[in-house]
TrEMBL record:
<dbReference type="InterPro" id="IPR036250">
    <property type="entry name" value="AcylCo_DH-like_C"/>
</dbReference>
<keyword id="KW-0274">FAD</keyword>
<keyword id="KW-0560">Oxidoreductase</keyword>
<protein>
    <submittedName>
        <fullName>Acyl-CoA/acyl-ACP dehydrogenase</fullName>
    </submittedName>
</protein>
<dbReference type="GO" id="GO:0003995">
    <property type="term" value="F:acyl-CoA dehydrogenase activity"/>
</dbReference>
<feature type="domain" description="Acyl-CoA dehydrogenase/oxidase C-terminal">
    <location>
        <begin position="119"/>
        <end position="241"/>
    </location>
</feature>
<dbReference type="Pfam" id="PF00441">
    <property type="entry name" value="Acyl-CoA_dh_1"/>
</dbReference>
<dbReference type="InterPro" id="IPR009075">
    <property type="entry name" value="AcylCo_DH/oxidase_C"/>
</dbReference>
<keyword id="KW-0285">Flavoprotein</keyword>
Amino acid sequence: MTADPELQLITESLRSAMLSSSGAKLDGALAELGWLDMLDEIPDTAVPLVFQLLGETGTQAPLLNDVVLRAAGLPGGGTVPMPYAGGSWVVWERSDQVASTLGGDLPIHRVAQRDSVPLAAGRRALGWWLVGCGRAMLSLARQHALDRVQFGRPIASFQAVRHRLAETFVAVEGAEATLQVASDHPDDLASLLAKAAAGQAALTAARHCQQVLGGIGFTAEHQLHRHIKRALVLDGLLGSSHELTREAGAIVRERGSAPRLAHL
């Protein structure tokens, strides 16, 4: 994705901004870097790049608003009510006024049910964010497995640890492949399935990486618990992986067949 020198420079600038700021400050920094212009001109590149980086760096910004607003034909820079798991609705504010509604570290507030909004583009964006979260958790667990020594050897040499890391890797890679297909065929069902796969991959990463890290993953000093909390919140936005899987099954039953999204 970053072989092009110009794209590599953009990636480094985005990563630098995300490593140095978060929330409203990052929102402003990305606006100065041309996030909205990128979303208009090169969405197929900008969305995977920016949202994966959000996941990998563990930072946050209310950029999902821009994706949903643009999909609705509205200008970016504002906010829009979005459905959340369980039939509730939320708004991701463009401020640093965090709420205890979801996780306690995000400016996400519950609101009354609103009119439906375009979901496909937002689900793909969240899918990339969840993939980034999964990769971040896998990286932390892998490094711990290499560094932690038990019985005179790194725990990375233990078969059970290897199996957990391998299952996480396969889940994350599979989710990314599903998102690539959804980008090539950006219809509602493909985007729904991609978001469900990404949510399930992030939850798989959370489960296995927590086991690999053990008690240290629960501590405030370690980054893993922050990625897990973020993955849980993102999975619920625009439909959880469980809800979307059920919805996909209902669609397939109604149609009487499953579409071929990728030719293998």
